[in-house]
Amino acid sequence: MIQPEILCQSPIFRGISPNDLQELFRQIHYQVKTYQKNDLITMAGDVCDRLLIIQEGSVKAEMTDYSGKTIKIEDMAAPWPLATAFLFGKENRFPVTVSATSDVEMVSIPKPEFVKMLQLNALILNNYLNTISSRAQFLSQKLKFLSFKTIKQKIAHYLLEKAGDRLQTVEVQQSQGQLAEMFGVTRPSLARTLGEMVQEGLIETDRRFIKILDKNRMNQLLMG
Amino acid sequence: MIQPEILCQSPIFRGISPNDLQELFRQIHYQVKTYQKNDLITMAGDVCDRLLIIQEGSVKAEMTDYSGKTIKIEDMAAPWPLATAFLFGKENRFPVTVSATSDVEMVSIPKPEFVKMLQLNALILNNYLNTISSRAQFLSQKLKFLSFKTIKQKIAHYLLEKAGDRLQTVEVQQSQGQLAEMFGVTRPSLARTLGEMVQEGLIETDRRFIKILDKNRMNQLLMG
DNA sequence: TTTGTAATGTAACGAATGTTACAAACTGAA
DNA sequence: TTCAGTTTGTAACATTCGTTACATTACAAA
Questions:
Q1: Has residue A5 got a pLDDT over 90?
Q2: Above 80 in pLDDT, residue B155?
Q3: What is the CATH code of the structural domain delimited by A4-143?
Q4: pLDDT tens column, B106-139
Q5: Residue A43 near chain B (CB below 8 Å)
Q6: What is the pLDDT of residues A182-222, one digit of tens each?
């Protein structure tokens, strides 16, 4: 029923041979459920007490707002695991409604069985811990970035991070537009702020190359 | 050397009896290190390849900015674990410099040994997974909150979340000032916006009680 | 070279929010 | 009650940023 060659491509089972994976699944209880296109797989608010991995097909995650309208959040396809961040932790309910966008095969492992799996295989344990930890780290970085209120601060943080120790010209790979989107601001606002920083003697710009002229004053911007 | 009665208060060892914990520690390699006040414990950038738990005393975490100045981030005391989010994941380096603010005893468990521990004891495994997952969930919530640009949106989201299904008066436990801090805005701005929403017929306010009058229009605010 | 398209610089205006200041209302203790 | 401290309402002004529009520059294909 399970397809080890597919599942071992999943971030959780990465590095495990299909044979070992097959053997592992023999030691635990699990289900393989099939869904047809447009079938509901989980509802927002459902308790998340089992690990779900897409073995075949693709699904979409939607969120219902308070007035009942649905907004698509994400598309996922095999061999991806669903909602790994909500299997453990305080708030272990699905935040989204998941439904099939094609015929789907889903491997469902009850939480206690998955815990057993983690104990049986150190590689899976590491993979899973890495998955959640990386997510937390990613979110933490993103949050730190958003904590800078002004565009000037965001630019300063970005450039100082990118420059590291060296007092050199930084090459920005992205266009102004992409940079603006990353900062969550509009393109003209970014351009204006860059212009202001040039006038203030903080930086020099030449197309995609930016030179930091006054590291100390840049830092002071980040303090407020 | 280790003090099981203290360590089992730690979120990671919660629910384990001191005896069981003692027995567990017998099966793995670990160190107990002592530091004097003001000693450096870890430097920002150090590879985080061991779990550190404060067994006695207190420490502070500081971050060095790009110009070399240090900013205090956090204070921690026994029996708290350090940097649980950085033991696994892609970026497993300490983001902060940790130093002792009193005489400190620190239990140091190498990562492979801690993994062994997780495999030996399902409760510790659950505790650790819960710790990281809760953190990711917390950050995710915070991030979602910050994604609302205007104060009106933040208020709407907060109230709708708090109200749930019922169309009732919501009691806000916090003062306007605390609420403002939570939203990352200033108190007068929050008060002004609340006033505007009253005038627009969206809500009614009476001290710490807020009544939602028009749920649909509140939702439309969140769409933009 | 010419030409079209994308990227960039710039300006004017308006909306949202911060800043500062002060008055009114509430709260709890003397 | 009275009074001090806290919370809340409100106003004027400054700042930041988004919006829109347009000119300029770079770049690559014809």
A1: yes
A2: yes
A3: 2.60.120.10
A4: 999 999 999 999 999 999 999 999 999 999 998 8
A5: no
A6: 898 999 999 999 999 999 999 998 878 888 888 888 888 88
**Contact indicator for B170, B159 with CB cutoff of 8 Å:** yes
The residue-averaged pLDDT of B19-34 equals 95
Whole-number Å distance between alpha carbons of B56 and B53: 9
Q: Chain B interface, mutation test: which of A135, A165, A212, A221, most B Cβ atoms within 10 Å?
A: A135
Q: Report residue B70's pLDDT band, with 50, 70 and 90 as the boundaries.
A: confident
* Distance of alpha carbon B191 from alpha carbon B173, whole angstroms: 16
Chain B residues 52-81 within an 8 A CB cutoff of chain A: 65-67, 69
Mean pLDDT across chain A, nearest whole number? 90
B 199-218 near A (Cβ less than 8 A): 215-216, 218
- Name the phi and psi angles at A209, rounded to 5: -110, 130
Please tell me whether the peptide bond between B79 and the residue prior to it is cis, using omega within 30 degrees of 0: yes
Contact assessment for residue A14 and residue A127, using Cβ atoms and an 8 Å cutoff = yes
Residue A223 is predicted with a pLDDT of 73
Per DSSP, helices labelled H in chain A are 4-7, 18-26, 111-120, 122-146, 151-163, 176-183, 187-199, 215-223
Rounded to whole angstroms, the Cα distance separating B201 from A41 reads 39
Strands B97-100 and B40-42: antiparallel
A32 - beta bridge partners?
Answer: A107
Q: Which residue do the tokens 């916006």 mark?
A: B193
Query: How far apart are the C-alpha atoms of A45 and A47, rounded to whole Å?
Result: 6
Is the pLDDT confidence value at B57 over 90?
A: yes
- What superfamily does domain B4-142 belong to in CATH? Jelly Rolls (2.60.120.10)
List the one residue out of A150, A224, A218 whose CA is nearest residue A185: A150
The CATH code of domain A148-223 reads 1.10.10.10
| B15 conformational bin, left if phi > 0, alpha if psi -120 to 50, beta if neither | left
B43/A71: higher pLDDT: B43
Residue A50: which of A122, A115, A110 has the closest Cα? Answer: A110
Interface A-B: count of C-beta contacts within 8 A: 121
Where do the structural domains in chain A lie, given as residue ranges? Answer: 4-143, 148-223
